[in-house]
Design a protein that fits this description.
By secondary structure, the protein is α/β, with parallel strands linked by helices. It has six helices and eleven strands.
Length: 180
């Protein structure tokens, strides 16, 4: 069984966080959600999310996938968290899948993981990194880095992650359950 980590920052985009978590679980992936602090997470539109743990408790664990929901100010908190930044670099060094949606690719950029990659994000989210190859596509898969544009792409983004983790058959099975 694959294992995925979904960090949940204060002010994250709830549609992305829930879609990612829900679809990965439907695919049989063991999902751990981790806050950046000890508090429950209040998402960008007020939904309250209860993480399984906090990032500091699992900062030395390896997962098959780390996937970052976006939203603001959540993506800024992901970018600024030293333990998460170290965990992202550790996973990259161990050739693990790393994904981010919406504004969250800024956390990957801060970790130096987007150099030489084709990426996508919410418009303007990576403006402070003008040297990056940012495209306006819905999803970009470049090696082990997967990025997506925003809330409207969350389902297709997560189905792509399922295919990368569990294969095309599992993706099709989950997609069929969703009546797509």
């Amino acid at each position: 069984m694959s294992r995925a980590l979904v960090p949940l920052a204060q002010g994250c985009e709830e549609l992305e966080a829930i879609t990612i978590t829900d679809l990965l679980v439907r695919a049989g992936v063991e999902v751990t959600t981790a806050g950046l602090d000890e508090k429950n997470v209040t998402a960008s539109r007020g939904a309250r999310l209860i993480p399984d743990t906090n990032i500091h408790n699992i900062k030395n664990e390896l997962f098959d996938l780390i996937v970052l929901p976006g939203g603001l100010p959540g993506a800024n908190h992901l970018r600024d968290d030293a333990d998460l930044q170290a965990l992202l670099k550790q996973h990259a060094a161990n050739n693990k899948l790393i994904a981010a949606i919406c504004a969250a690719p800024k956390a990957l950029a801060a970790a130096g993981l987007l150099e030489g990659k084709q990426v996508t994000c919410y418009p303007g989210a990576l403006d402070e990194y003008p040297h990056l190859n940012v495209r306006s596509t819905a999803i970009e898969i470049d090696g082990l880095i997967i990025t997506s544009r925003g809330p409207g792409t969350a389902m297709d983004f997560t189905l792509s992650l399922i295919e990368l983790l569990e294969g095309r058959v599992k993706r099709n099975e989950v997609e069929h359950q969703l009546l797509r």
